[in-house]
């Protein structure tokens, strides 16, 4: 009877997870960089080291969702990787974010030597180095990454008042991100009196890879802020990635999955040219595959439960 009860609870929880996961929106993709491009490099062995490393990282995320490192070796190639989730991020949201990043990398960057991907809530970096090389490749995956995206919504109608407010907010977030208690992350909002003499708000986040020193973090954040102010001035939102740091702002509250209860309202960002269609196709394929796998597990457990019930009934009849 205990086996029946535990099996029923497991099946029920699995079914609930499948049902709930379909209602949870995927975290927005903010930046993706692959080096070299998938069309110019192919692995010479049958095993895909990128997939192996990603599987290891995402499986460890079930246990430690804050900061995870892993490495794996194939012949003379050593692959290094780490993943981090935003401080305060719910473990389930972290796992979903990690799976989304995994599927994106496998679909768009399966043969790359270096990959870095920012989602709203998590970051994954992968890099490869030769075993006989003395060169330090730890930062190669993000060293040359420089991306930006501005809101596709209508331009801000009050730039004279919003620009100083945005500058003040970004300066505050840049100062806060290096506080020891913030773990490389800061978020906040600022209100200003708009042209209609009512309050408007700007929301922002700054996030860095936690392995950076305070000096490195401040440098990269400063460069990302410069990109935002140059490319997204007068816009209602924008995202800039420079190296291992990300800066984002929006006139709508956009914190995905945990800082506030609001959903990702800043999801109207334009995706970098040429990535949008492939990302959507890759994510759809990946999550359809995951849903089918979960459904097969559910069917198998239901069959085992039915078989157990029949066997117990037979034993009861014989007794």
From TrEMBL:
It comes from Sesamum radiatum. This is Gnk2-homologous domain-containing protein. Its main location: secreted. GO terms for cellular component: extracellular region. InterPro entries: CRR_secretory_protein, GNK2, GNK2_sf. Residues 27-131, 144-254 form the Gnk2-homologous domain. It is found in: Secreted. Residues 1-21 form the signal peptide. Keywords: Membrane, Repeat, Secreted, Signal, Transmembrane, Transmembrane helix. The chain crosses the membrane at residues 284-305. Belongs to the cysteine-rich repeat secretory protein family.
């Amino acid at each position: 009877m205990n086996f029946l009860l535990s099996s029923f609870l497991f099946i029920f929880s699995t079914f609930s997870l499948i049902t709930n996961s379909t209602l949870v929106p995927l975290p927005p993709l903010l930046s993706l960089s692959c080096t070299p491009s998938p069309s110019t490099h192919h692995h010479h062995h049958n095993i895909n080291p990128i997939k192996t490393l990603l599987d290891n990282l995402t499986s460890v995320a079930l246990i430690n969702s804050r900061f995870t490192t892993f490495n794996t070796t194939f012949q003379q190639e050593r692959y290094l990787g780490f993943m981090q989730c935003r401080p305060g991020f719910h473990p389930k949201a972290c796992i979903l974010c990690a799976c989304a990043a995994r599927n994106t990398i496998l679909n768009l960057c399966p043969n790359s030597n270096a990959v870095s991907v920012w989602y709203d809530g998590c970051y994954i970096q992968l890099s490869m180095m030769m075993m006989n090389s003395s060169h330090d490749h730890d930062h190669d995956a993000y060293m040359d990454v420089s991306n930006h995206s501005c809101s596709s919504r209508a331009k801000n109608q009050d730039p004279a008042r919003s620009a100083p407010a945005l500058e003040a907010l970004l300066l505050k977030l840049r100062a806060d991100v290096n506080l020891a208690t913030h773990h490389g992350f800061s978020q906040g909002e600022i209100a200003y009196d708009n042209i209609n003499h009512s309050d408007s708000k700007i929301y922002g986040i700054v996030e860095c890879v936690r392995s950076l020193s305070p000096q490195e973090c401040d440098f990269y954040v400063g460069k990302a802020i410069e990109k935002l102010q140059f490319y997204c001035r007068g816009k209602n939102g924008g995202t800039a990635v420079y190296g291992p740091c990300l800066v984002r702002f929006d006139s709508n509250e956009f914190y995905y999955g945990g800082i506030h209860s609001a959903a990702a309202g800043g999801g109207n960002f334009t995706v970098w040219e040429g990535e949008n269609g492939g990302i959507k196709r890759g994510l759809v394929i990946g999550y359809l595959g995951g849903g089918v796998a979960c459904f097969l597990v559910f069917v198998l457990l239901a069959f085992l439960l039915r078989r157990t019930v029949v066997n117990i009934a037979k034993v009861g009849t014989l007794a």
